[in-house]
Design a protein that fits this description.
The chain has 402 residues and is of the alpha+beta class. The chain has four domains: 1-70, no CATH class; 112-165, no CATH class; 198-276, no CATH class; 319-400, Macroglobulin (MG2) domain (Immunoglobulin-like, Sandwich). Helices cover 17% and strands 22% of the residues. It contains five helices and 17 strands. It has helices at residues 2-16, 198-203, 238-241, 249-255, 275-311, and strands at residues 24-26, 32-34, 46-48, 58-60, 139-145, 158-164, 207-209, 244-246, 260-262, 268-270, 319-320, 331-338, 345-351, 356-362, 366-373, 380-388, 391-400. It has a four-stranded mixed β-sheet with strand order 1-2-3-4, covered by helices on one side. It is elongated, with a radius of gyration of 47 Å. The relative contact order is 0.05.
Length: 402
């Protein structure tokens, strides 16, 4: 730490000797001041252009646009324009603290940046304007807050970045997955959606469109010409060239007002993520309706079938039935149905080699039967088939035992 103070002291002295008519003084306690015309005591150990403050070791009151400027040439290995090591010991500990603001008075600055980082000159992909690394179990490599809260924020988890407040992007957000907090412990007034979503979803107007170019507004009192304004979006990006699909916020607001949010800039935005549960609910409702319709169709079909059977009770369709008894030793009965419109019907008996053994002509129509005498046949398995007007109605097996 002593070497670090010596380095800063040299930097302060070197930077301040360039100030015209600079005054150097050392008081009776050993405190050093530059650019000071006084015989009184100094408040800081090292101070420039001011008496300093009692709780500040090194104090610089700059009269130009640069508070402290360090310029060094590059070298091999790691290179630092300013390297600070701080060992946390108090309530809030800052390796670097930068405050670039005023609490009262007229705004006079065109732009104000607490920390500015510009990087370049390294291998492609290894240039970082601002880099942050988390060296602990919980916390974030980069922390950002839009509500002025620092010390009271406790981050449970390890994150590359943690932002307390809204985040706005003018480019694409590329993530492998998107997760929203949904634990029931984080919710209150939980209720199942009881109202119908299908009708509302059907009322949603889906449009295709392209985004307009927007420009950053010129600062108050600054040059407001078009050349001085910066565009929000890259004109050559896919975001500007491609078509997009979505909703018009003003239209969706009439259907689901809670899904439409007004931004700080006064423009309306849509919460697309929470539309997903509504779509799922609509699919569930549609599935219920389809099941109801399906059940209705089945009931109607069953009723119609019963009515048709009652109407056509005498209608006969050609069919062949299993012989009884089976197996048999002396004789067996083969029943069959022959439709009234059949012109020619025959029953054929075959052995298991496919050779025709005998043929029976069926003259009757409707329900009929034929008796087979097994006395003329050898014991074994046989096939019998019903042929009606040249079409095979059915084929079955019978077994003869002796």
């Amino acid at each position: 730490m002593k070497n670090f103070k010596k380095i800063l002291t040299i930097l302060f002295v070197s930077s301040c000797f360039s100030v015209a008519n600079a005054q150097l003084m050392v008081d009776e306690t050993g405190k050093t001041g530059l650019g000071i015309e006084t015989t009184g005591s100094l408040n800081s150990q090292l101070t420039v252009n001011s008496l300093g403050e009692s709780n500040v070791t090194m104090y610089l009151n700059s009269q130009d646009f640069t508070g402290l400027k360090i310029n060094r040439t590059s070298q091999s290995g790691s290179s630092y324009g300013l390297y600070i090591t701080n060992h946390p010991s108090g309530f809030e500990n800052h390796g670097v603290y930068s405050r670039n603001t005023i609490s009262t008075g007229t705004r006079t600055a065109y732009s104000s940046y607490g920390v500015t980082g510009i990087a370049g000159g390294a291998n492609n992909g290894y240039n970082f304007g601002v880099a942050g690394f988390l060296d602990d179990v919980y916390g974030a490599g980069v922390f950002g807050s839009s509500v002025g809260i620092l010390g009271n924020v406790s981050v449970t988890g390890k994150y590359a970045g943690f932002f307390h407040g809204d985040v706005y992007l003018t480019g694409s957000l590329n993530v492998p997955t998107l997760v929203s907090p949904s634990d029931y412990r984080l919710k209150s007034d939980i209720k199942s959606v009881s109202s119908s979503c299908l009708d509302k979803v059907m009322d949603m107007n889906i449009v295709e469109f392209k985004y307009k170019q927007r420009e950053f507004e010129a600062a108050e009192g600054a040059e407001a010409s078009r050349e001085k304004r910066a565009p929000w979006y890259d004109e050559e990006s896919a975001f500007m060239k491609n078509k997009h699909y979505g909703f018009i916020a003003q239209e969706l607001q009439k259907i689901y007002p809670d899904l439409v949010v007004e931004g700080e800039d006064g423009y309306l935005g849509v919460n697309y993520l929470e539309i997903i549960p509504l779509l799922v609910r609509s699919v569930q409702e549609l599935n219920v309706k389809l099941e109801q319709q399906s059940n209705g169709i089945v009931k109607k079909a069953a009723t119609r079938s019963t009515d048709e059977e009652a109407t056509n009770i005498d209608a006969i369709v050609s069919a062949l039935y299993q012989n009884t008894p089976n197996p048999f030793t002396e004789s067996t009965l083969i029943r069959c149905d022959v439709a009234d419109e059949v012109v020619k019907a025959d029953l054929y008996i075959y052995n298991m080699n496919g050779e025709q053994i005998t043929e029976y002509t069926i003259t009757e129509r409707g329900k009929t039967s034929i008796t087979i005498n097994g006395g003329s046949l050898n014991a074994g398995m046989y096939l019998y088939a019903l042929i009606a007007d040249g079409q095979v109605i059915d084929t079955k097996r019978m077994i003869l035992t002796k």
